[in-house]
Batch of 4 targets.
Target 1
Amino acid sequence: MLIFAMATQFGGNSSRRGPDVVTEELVAVLSTSAWYEFKPLFELVYMNLRARKSASGGEEMLRLRAYEKLQSLVNRGMVQKSITKAGKKYRGLASLAQLLAAAPATPAAA
């Protein structure tokens, strides 16, 4: 009975997460019309996150999260994926720019 009470105590529908900074940075970098392979794209995102002091959890874990977020944007039709012999490349579409414009402005770090 005690275990059940503890399990329900921590469950719930509210989330304490803040804004998804990885997706914000992906959108910011991909909002240009340039094509990016994943490695250079991740390096730009990682550099921007470090500048914002938002890169936490280790580089490899952040790389996995960024790839997952990128694939989510591809599946939602906001990023175009091109597969060639040289590799996979990604480019933001017009719907991605709309997502960037609709996102609330984040406060600048002091």
Target 2
Amino acid sequence: MHNRTMLLTLALAALAAAVATAATASNFARNADPPVNVQVFAPRQGDAVGKASRGFFVDLAVQYPSLAASGADLQLTGPTTHQNQAPFPGAFSPGVDEKLPGLIVLLSTSTIGARNAQNLANLFNLTGFTNRKTNEIWDTWIVGAPSFGKNVRSVLRVAVAADKNGDGIYNDAPAVVPDANHDGRINAVDLRAYGVASNIEVVPFQITD
């Protein structure tokens, strides 16, 4: 009887140790640095931006494991006559940005396309290679149309999509982010469900009159 009790105690201890090890490994995986890093310079949390609900910047930097992995290219673009013009031609429309094809940019108050699920990355105007030593790319958008609300609180969300097709390039952003939990809101839960290779930057701010 004593031996049976001892064996049961040892078995329970081993099980507890295995569970603790698995939990530690899971926590480490969640806390490990992602391969891509996103930093938003503008807007900042709590900013009141724009004039006539436009004319504000979304300005950010993305750091990749390598420049080749970014799939990026130069662009200087905009609407109508500014589109696809020298010296750095690029398309200008909602959806995936062909010059930074892994970037996902969402505004919660967007009225464009699929609204808060619409990827706005292809509306960015300026993309450049800022630091080749650190594989850092800067990307800037000056919002030229009042398409994101007036006197409203909005939330900017930025991330880089995971390498879903396994080609070694972070070029798999969606044109529209799927609503994974079907709650009618697109947020970090849906971005993680789609798959991201970066941190998710979340910036609440206000769009003025």
Target 3
Amino acid sequence: MTAFPDRFAEKRRILQLETLYDLALALHAHVPEPELVDELLQRVVPVLDPAAAVAVTRDPFGGPRAASTVGWADRAPSGEALLSDPLWNELLAEGRLLVRRRRSFAGRDCSEVIAAPLSYRGVFLGYLAVIDKEARGEGEEPSFSDDDRRFLDSVAALAGVSLDSLRNVERLETQRERLAEENKALRGRLVDEVAGQRIVAQSPQMRQILEVVERVAPRGVNVLVRGESGTGKELIAKLLHLLSGREGALVALNCAALPESLLESELFGIEGGVATGVHARSGKFELADGGTLFLDEIGDMQPTVQAKLLRAIQEREVVRVGAAKPIPVDVRLVAATHQDLEQQVGEREFREDLYYRLKGVEIDLPPLRERRSDVPHLVRHFVEEFCEREGIPVPPFRSDALALMMAHDFPGNVRELQNLVEGAVSLAEEEVGADLLRSLIGAGMEPAASGPEALDLDTVERRHIRRVLELTEGNKSSAAKILGVDRKTLQRKGF
């Protein structure tokens, strides 16, 4: 007499297992979230025979993202109603499947409700619930069995994994689209922020410079970038290379960082066996073949190296130190300097013929004090970039802090501003105010007083450098880091 019920229960378990298997395959396909939620109910309802069922997911801010219902003849509950029902708060508190009897749910009186959270790794993404089991045979008690509850719990667990995976795919797709748009802007039409949002240009001067970069980049002409330390000469070089379409690499060399003997071998390479223990090595010209060679601080290059550089540019070939055979190279040159090359030419410190070879197109970057309208945009950019990198919340900047930065001359230019912003964010407790900025940079951040002495740029710059040196107790390396300049820059200025 008990064989029929046992066979019926066994068939139901087989059906549940088959449904779980089919559901796992169906959820593996990354469909839109509303379709996934509908799929859940379509799979669950035929197996559990509820009078009604709901599935709802929420977004990271707690609002409804997708909702599906079965068994509501008239007004089905909205996603907002399902997430505001007390059952959702009970699920959040318990963190597991719940069974509730004789209660109201989503405006409906229910004899029995079982609900399972849609979660993954402790993050609750929504829930799945079935209401009042339908009676399908004579004498059958309309109640959900233990197998039914285990089945619903398994379905919810599968769905939680799928939802998390789906959202990760959506995030990656959004990121891919954003990167594609940035790349399109980089290689096509320049916009307000280019090169991976690293060049912020709202001021008319910088926007005009970026227009010049866009026109010049695809050409093979050499470019001379001029500007004070920290104005972004290297970023302009990177942008020129990215927009050039050249397939080779961008190779950079600081001409002020090496003595003459090393600079020559770094530029042109060296043959093995020139001296004991010396191995053959390619120079920067060879490494940049087919690409761009960026020579920073070109004004500090020694005259003998200048002559060899001129020959390499003219002949489009290099000869390694200790070798006789020339090596052909296809290199686009971008040079940068903060020095007055015309004065150096007049004083015979820099070759005039090399100067005109480098100066195919000249780009003069204005200091930050001449484009103060960029300061608020730069501050926001550096704050967001730094906080994202460090994984910390973005602190608000008070108006008095922004006013101080707008009034400051920033001798170290954009690099100094970036270091100041990152230091302020690191030390801020809740917000960044003027007092915190003064403690980092000194009292001289007040707006400059009137008078000839205060308006003299060199005097203001030297006074500010002295204050930073006092703050670092004479440590030039630390002072240079705060100012955002090279240590040799301080030496050239007599400090």
Target 4
Amino acid sequence: MAQPGLIRDALGALPILSLLAAVYLLPPDTSLSEVRRAGVLHVCMPPIEPPFVTGDAKAPGIDVEILQALVRDLGLKLAPVPEPAMGRDFNPRGWHVTRAACEVLAGGVVASPMTRSFLETSSSYAQTGWALLLRKPAPPGGEGLESGPLQGRKIGVFTPSSGLDRIALASQLRAAQVQVIIVGSPDALIAGLREGRFELGVTERLLADQIAARESWVADWLPGDLPHYPVAFGLWKGDLTLKRAIEGGLGRLARDGTVATILARYVGKGA
């Protein structure tokens, strides 16, 4: 007759054995082998999202250039898949992208908790968050603009479709009692600063860095406790073999200086 203790031990082991059996029966992850078989990496990205995707063949954007180097490293070809919804909605669940369309998502993907609830993310190549753009040096005859306190100042704000927290930004600016002028594009932000319609600009950090490098202005993190997030590439959950291959390629590109060179070309420095 079986001993009661042995029966209890056997019953206690059943959940573990069931879990192991379920894992064993999972279909194999073929994400990398399927991409290698096709020889192409399909990447969903917004048509325009500077500085990540520009639409300019000579300077296509940070993400596009990193991906071009990555597919060369992996022996693949890059197939961009324009997804306009990615340029309109900061919530990844609103992008309407599927596995059938692409294996990777790019274009300034912010590796925030919201994004990671929906996607896997690669290792990061930069940090993003809300940044302050200062017009410096000033136009001839004008005085330089220092950051100083934000209270009561007139600030132009461009919020791109990246997954940064717009509600937290609005709360901080409201608490500082600033005069907010919403603009609809990077060009409008630049024009407003040049023409003196507002004193300072606020936008995503890498875009601010790009503008600052081009205009000889200054960009810095927006004062306060707003979070900073990694910028990465998105992958579908469960595509572990493809993720490992991409991680390996990104690591090699970081070590040989390729990523830093690309960043310097767009934002004037490694990020």
